[in-house]
Amino acid sequence: MIHGALLVAYDTTLNAKNSKKILGIQKWKNHSGNADKGEYITGHHLGVLGIIGSFLSQKFLCFPLLFRLISGKSNPCQFVSDTDGKTRPMSFWDNAHATLFQFAKWASKHTVRVVVDAYFSNKSFIQPLLDRKNPIHMITKLKCNTIGYLDPETPKIKKQGRPRKRGKKGKNI
């Protein structure tokens, strides 16, 4: 427990494989920035969730707890169904949410906070975490192109046209 909540970290990793006959193998874009590995990697893409704890005075350690295969579009092996019963292949975000929701279910009595990198600072990742009955709070670095808006002010006199969706731009530091 750190500041009254369980703190977890979530990130993804690419594991290169030589065989193309293994389940879940496909071509993934390499975002590592290492030119020696090439532009693409053939292998598994895994989502990893670890719990962060404070040990030995001020040292923090992350212990991996959950690994989930991200199957991708060309070789789907995981599916999700909506309330109408229609199934579709699990997306990257569905995999991330499934891992976090599974951990939150295990830690049902405690508040959960997740630490992620700037790649995860978008609405498709954040909104389902906040829409839950017991929301999962996120700690992240915002992308450099992020724009924040305040809530729109309701006009005293109703004007013609559609009401504003956004308020004034907020300044991101």
TrEMBL record:
MF terms (GO), sorted A to Z: endonuclease activity
Short name of any one Pfam family annotated for the protein: DDE_5
Alphabetical UniProt keywords: Endonuclease, Hydrolase, Nuclease
Annotated spans, Disordered: 153-173
Residue span(s) of domain Transposase IS701-like DDE: 7-169
Basic residues compositional bias, start-end: 157-173
Signal peptide: none
Protein name per the record: DDE superfamily endonuclease
Organism in which the protein naturally occurs: Paramaledivibacter caminithermalis (strain DSM 15212 / CIP 107654 / DViRD3)
